[in-house]
Each structure stands twice: as structure tokens, then as C-alpha cells.
Write a structure and sequence with these properties.
This protein has about 400 residues and is mainly alpha-helical. The chain has helices spanning about 5-15, 40-45, 90, 110-115, 135-150, 155-165, 185, 215-220, 235-240, 250-260, 260-265, 275-280, 290-300, 300-305, 310-315, 320-325, 335-340, 355-365, 375-380, 385-395, 395-405; strands at about 20-25, 30-35, 55, 60, 80, 85, 190-195, 200. It folds into three domains: about 5-85, no CATH class; about 185-280, no CATH class; about 290-405, no CATH class. The chain has 21 helices and eight strands. The strands form four sheets. Strands 1-2 form a two-stranded antiparallel ribbon. The chain is globular.
Length: about 400
């Protein structure tokens, strides 16, 4: 089928108001697939020579972008009955000018490369020409990580301030916030990297259905660009895992976590210790707006605690706690019901919830062992994680198990 016929088929589809992708079949017919992704394979039916496509409004060529998936720029089907939807400049900044870790700038960011000599007229409305004489603190705070950082650097701000003897600091990092534009690359399922450990995928899924669907990437990954801002630690995984404190009960939970065993180890440089994300997850963290989701959280100790405390989790098998918990009994205690969550400490720490003296109150909490005493704790606490050991050390039980093993 000729390109002319294919083009006419696409134009007809658009004329009918069908906003979908065209797929050429083996028999030459065009099928409009409403659910197809914006990939080259689904665009080439109409755009057989996409590399020759140009945008007359800017210095842009599809040919120089052929190494990227169409969906990196075209998040949705671009052709509609009212015209073609052209990606805005903000989407260009998903890559252009982006300083991405040790890779440096991953795409050029000189304005005149695309906009020609008239780019200086493109300043935002709030950025008036008498900027220096006009109060600009609030506009700069509001737009710092968006409009400002799209064109400027921290050094340019400091240069002007130093001349005037002005000292100005902000807690926000001088990094352009691409929001979830990172998905331009990380939303591509074939985004992988080969290392000594094998092939690792950097494909990110689950965000749109997660509790963080309205949170931008940079809010959790503040140091993704490796800028001059001092990060919390030297590892981005740890920094991302600690970023939750900026939104969730910062004044309370952050302090409690810092005093916990996990927080203390992180502060000491032991980055194998747990952060918020280690327990709660990251990109696909669930929304707790249904009873089913709450139950999933309740019975998530095998994912939340076991990866680091496998031996303790395996031995959590006594009749009244571990065994029913693993059988998904809703009234059975999870690890954090006894050991605490953000405030978890080593059992031998006098401040631990399971330190013998404190365990009296912990075990006697509402719904558990009302009226527990020191004698009760002394006689039973060691059995919770020791059922198997207790069984094998009991001569009668040991004899019975040996008989059964012969059968």
C-alpha cells in the first residue's frame, strides 16, 4: 500500500474523531488501535520516514531524536481533529539541560540551538526587564525549580547578589524539577544497563496507581543530578529512602526514626540499615484507602522485615503469635506490634519495647495479654521466637519427632 493511501486512511480516522494509533496489517489495511502505545512500530504506518519530519516553529529534527522512544516526547496520540498536539518546551527539558548524575548534561541546553537569536524574548511574564529593581524574592521562590532553573544556575544568582552585598539562601535545591518527566526514559521498558552484576532494568512502573501518583520524582530523589547541594548521604538509594521525612510528620516521625536503631546505623554510615523506603516501598507504595490495602499492609512483614531479619521471621512460629499471623489471622500481632515501627530498637536496649521491664506494658496493651506481669514475661517471652528450639529440646517431643521421621 502506498504512503498516500496510508496517509489518507489516517486523515480519515482523524476526521472521524478517532484519537488512536494506526497499525498496518500484513494485507495492507490500516487498523486503528485505541490502546496502542506511542511507539515507533505503531506510528510508522503513517510516518514511514519519520526521520525527515521537522517542526517549522523551532530548529528541531526527528532524525536527531531517533534513539529515543516516540513516547518520550509524545505522551499521548498527537493527532486530533482540531490539529496536531506539539510537545511543549517543558517536555524538552525532560532531557535537555538535565544533569543526571555522573553522566553530566545528557542533552544540550543552549536556547539558541532550538529557538534561534530571538530566544531572549522568551522570558516568563513575571521576569520583567527591571528584575533587579523590582521585588523578585517571592516570584523566585515560587518559580525557582521550574522557570528559573530552566535558564539559570545558582552561580548567576550569586553573581548578582554578591555585587550588591546581598546574602540569600534557600532550603530548596537549585535543580530544575522535571516533575515526572523522568518517565520519558524510565517509562521505557527496554531501559537497561549492563554491569558486572548482569543486566539491570531501570524501567519504573506502578507510580500512576500508587499513593505517590501526585508526587514528583525530584521530591523523592533530590540529589538525582549530583549538584553541589550537600546530600544527606553519599548514596542516592539511601537519600531517596529518607526523603519521605520531608512530607510525612516531619517533626515527629523524623525525630523518632533518627533515635531508632535503623536511624542510628544510617547516621553512623551503615547504609545497609533500613530507611523509610526499605520498609514501605517506593514507586509502587500502596494507597491505604481500602480495607484490602490495610490488610495487605498488616500481613507484609515477610516483605518489610524478613529481608533483613530472616532468621527471626522464620522462627516466629509459636501457636499464639507467629503461626496465626502467617496464617493471616487479623488479630495476630505483626512484628511492629511488639518491636515498634519507626522507634524500633535492639531488644537489649533498655528503651526497647521488648526489653524485659518494658515488655510488661507492651504485652499488656489493649487486645493482648491484659494484666501481664514480670513473671509472665519471664516464662513466655522466649517462646515467641523459639517454638522449634523448645520442641527439639523437650525429650518427649524430641522422641515423638524421631518416631515420626522414621515413618
Amino acid at each position: 500500500m502506498s504512503y498516500l493511501v496510508i496517509a489518507l486512511a489516517c486523515v480519515l480516522a482523524l476526521g472521524l474523531g478517532i484519537t488512536a494509533l494506526a497499525v498496518a496489517q500484513d494485507d495492507g489495511t490500516i487498523v486503528i488501535d485505541p490502546g496502542a502505545p506511542v511507539y515507533a512500530s505503531t506510528c510508522k504506518a503513517c510516518h514511514g520516514v519519520i526521520a525527515e519530519g521537522r517542526n517549522p516553529l523551532v530548529e528541531f529534527s526527528h532524525a536527531t531524536h531517533m534513539v529515543y522512544a516516540c513516547s518520550s516526547c509524545h505522551e499521548a496520540f498527537p493527532h486530533t481533529p482540531s490539529g496536531t498536539i506539539t510537545p511543549d518546551m517543558k517536555s524538552c527539558w525532560n532531557c535537555h539541560g538535565l544533569r543526571h548524575g555522573p553522566m553530566g548534561i545528557i542533552a544540550g541546553y543552549e536556547c539558541e540551538q532550538c529557538h534561534g537569536p530571538g530566544f531572549d524574548e522568551m522570558r516568563p511574564e513575571f521576569h520583567v526587564r527591571d528584575w533587579a529593581e523590582t521585588p523578585h524574592v517571592q516570584p523566585s521562590l515560587d518559580e525557582l525549580r521550574t522557570s528559573c532553573m530552566m535558564c539559570h544556575t545558582k552561580a548567576q544568582c550569586d553573581e548578582c547578589h554578591d555585587e550588591l552585598g546581598v546574602v540569600w539562601r534557600t532550603t530548596a535545591s537549585f535543580t530544575y524539577d522535571v516533575e515526572n518527566g523522568c518517565q520519558a526514559c524510565h517509562g521505557y521498558e527496554n531501559l537497561t544497563k549492563v554491569s558486572a552484576d548482569g543486566v539491570k532494568s531501570y524501567y519504573v512502573t506502578g507510580i500512576e496507581q500508587s499513593a505517590h501518583r501526585d508526587v514528583t520524582c525530584v521530591e523523592c530523589h533530590p540529589d538525582f543530578s549530583y549538584t553541589d547541594d550537600e546530600p544527606a548521604t553519599a548514596m542516592w538509594q539511601v537519600n531517596a529512602g529518607l526523603a519521605c521525612q520531608e512530607c510525612h510528620d516531619h517533626d515527629e516521625v523524623a525525630v523518632v526514626y533518627a533515635e531508632s536503631l535503623h536511624g542510628q546505623l544510617i547516621a553512623q554510615g551503615d547504609y545497609s540499615s533500613a530507611t523509610c523506603a526499605s520498609c514501605h516501598g517506593g514507586h509502587d507504595i500502596a494507597r491505604l484507602d481500602t480495607e484490602a490495602a490495610k490488610l495487605d499492609l498488616l500481613f507484609s512483614a515477610d516483605q518489610m522485615c524478613a529481608p533483613c531479619h530472616q532468621e527471626a521471621y522464620d522462627s516466629y512460629d509459636d501457636y499464639y503469635h507467629g503461626a496465626p499471623y502467617k496464617a493471616m489471622a487479623e488479630d495476630a500481632p505483626a512484628c511492629w506490634d511488639c518491636h515498634g515501627a519507626h522507634e524500633v530498637l535492639a531488644v537489649g536496649d533498655p528503651a526497647s519495647l521488648m526489653y524485659p521491664v518494658n515488655a510488661i506494658e507492651t504485652c499488656g496493651q489493649e487486645g493482648c495479654h491484659y494484666g501481664s506481669t514480670e513473671a509472665f514475661i519471664e516464662q513466655s517471652a522466649h517462646l515467641i521466637h523459639g517454638r522449634s528450639e523448645a520442641q527439639t529440646s523437650n525429650p518427649i517431643v524430641g522422641w515423638w519427632l524421631s518416631i515420626r521421621n522414621r515413618e
